[in-house]
C-alpha cells in the first residue's frame, strides 16, 4: 500500500498523463521515473512497480468516466463536460431532465444536442 504522499504523487502523474497525452512502454516508465526521482525517488524496484501500477490504475479509472458532450447546433461549438451537474448548470435545467436527454441523445431547447462524449484519444 502506498503512503498518502505517494498516492498524491501518483494521482498528479496520472492527471499529467491524461492531460498531455498518454505514453506507453519505455516512454511511460521514463516519464514516471523522471517525475518521481525529482521528488526523492524509490527505495526499491518493488516500490517503483507498486507506484507504476497505482498510476496506471488511476489513469484507467479516470479514462472510464463518462463525459457529457453538448453541441450547440446553431454555432457548431462542442463542449465536453465532466459531470451531469456541470452540464445541467450550463444548460439551466435540472439533472433529471438532463438524464432524459442523455438517454435519448436528444436536443434540448431545439439548440443543444446532448449525448455522452465519444472521446478522441488525446481527450482521455
End-to-end Cα distance = 27 Å
Evaluate the radius of gyration: 19 Å
Which strand order spans the largest sheet, edge to edge or round the barrel? 2-1-4-3
Overall domain count? 2
Report the average pLDDT across residues: 79
Q: What proportion strand? A: 5-15%
Structure described in brief:
The protein is of the alpha+beta class. The protein has helices at residues 4-20, 25-37, 45-64, 84-91, 95-104, and strands at residues 68-72, 77-81, 107-108, 112-116. It folds into two domains: 4-64; 68-123, no CATH class.
Can you characterise this structure?
There is one protein chain. The longest helix has 20 residues, at 45-64. This protein folds into two domains: 4-64; 68-123, no CATH class. The chain is elongated, with a radius of gyration of 19 Å. The protein has a four-stranded antiparallel β-sheet with strand order 2-1-4-3. The protein has helices spanning 4-20, 25-37, 45-64, 84-91, 95-104; strands at residues 68-72, 77-81, 107-108, 112-116. The model has no long low-confidence stretch (mean pLDDT 79). 55% of the residues lie in helices and 14% in strands. Strand 1 (68-72) and strand 2 form a beta hairpin. With 124 residues, the chain is α+β, with helices and mostly antiparallel strands. Helix 1 (4-20) crosses helix 3 and helix 4 (84-91) crosses helix 5 (95-104).
